[in-house]
What we know:
By secondary structure, the protein is an alpha+beta fold. It has 4 helices and 10 strands; from the N terminus they run H-E-E-E-E-E-E-E-E-H-E-E-H-H. The protein folds into 2 domains: 83 residues, Sandwich (Immunoglobulin-like); 122 residues.
Amino acid sequence: MKFHTPLCMEARRSFDLKAGVIFLAIIFSLLLPLCSAKLGNFKQNECVDIKTILNATAVNISTISYPNSTVAIRNEVMNKDGSTFNYTFCDTIALGVYNYDYFTLEGSVYVNDFEITYTGEKVTQEQIYIYLFGLLFLIFLIFGTIAVINKLPSRDSVDDRGAIININNLKHLRGVLWIVVWTFCLAIVFILFNLALAYIPNSMMGNFLFVVYQLMFWITIIGIPINFIWIFYKVFKDKEMKRMIERGAEFRGIP
């Protein structure tokens, strides 16, 4: 039978505590060389300066990977200025998170990443809510304007024989409001293509919406002046018709 004196038990507890501290120190020393942190967000098609401050002889970039995990560069030497090491990476056309790792000649390895966005900023929930509110507001305006259009007369007043008895000038407002609806649709496409380019890593949808926006924009530039010219022409013709009706002329209309 073994007996443990208080002195032996105290020595054993002290040994266990020291062993635990040594074990944690070993684990920490093993994990320390492999560090991970985020460099930040940067704008698409702009260069990113990868900088680090290390007490090392030389530092090499091991790899930089695109967001689709394909390797962009391998084993590039970082420029040294005192204790600061720098490497400039400019191939940032793809949106998303770029992973990179670098190592010192002394054997330490570091892992990091940076993100490329359309604006160089990270989307926040507040921004998403603002964009969604803006889109919903524009959609509400579109349906509201269409409801007003449907309430407006589309033709002149006629009698039982189909002869025009009164010129409704409000029918010309329908054309103006349809232009307003088109402008709201253009604004929605503009917001959508910016959102797609800014916050969707795959730029295919953003590029498609941008093409749609460009097409609608040029249609707007050409179509709106033509529409207003046509509306003014119809207003002028209605004034001429009204004078002739007041003189006793008769015009057939759509019943």
